[in-house]
Hints:
This protein is of the alpha+beta class.
Amino acid sequence: MEQQLAAPQRGHRATTNAAEADYMLVEIWGDTVDTRHLAWSVVLGIAISYGAFAAANRVLAAYVPDPAMARAYAMLVGLAGCLIAGAVCAKLFRPKREVIEEAHGAAGREEVLAQLASEAGGLGRVADLPPAVAAEMKELGLYELFADYEKRADVREGAR
């Protein structure tokens, strides 16, 4: 099984249903996001992290005699607030991507191997693989695939 990531292109408008308005999807750091959810995430992140920092700063100022130390600890609480904000936003705003699994036959695998072989550096030789990598490839059922392709490539090279 191969997984493909089906994501709208940058600036693509998508409509979910008649009840929901159009929303703008953009790609940021390799992920597809709704711009409204992104804006809300920024606002929530600022509010939660700064709120945690300000509250901790106020509380710690009353208990820690050194103001610089109290502020440093408050900054740590603010960082924890950033993590909490990230978790809250991840829970509120689910990803907009769809993963589509497709089974590819031998022709699809051959096409991928040919594409990899044509790239700079080529595929290399399976005999040159470190033992740990070869063992992992065997476990995944990929070692034989690459070895067979290598043998066929050697035969094609010998025929030329």
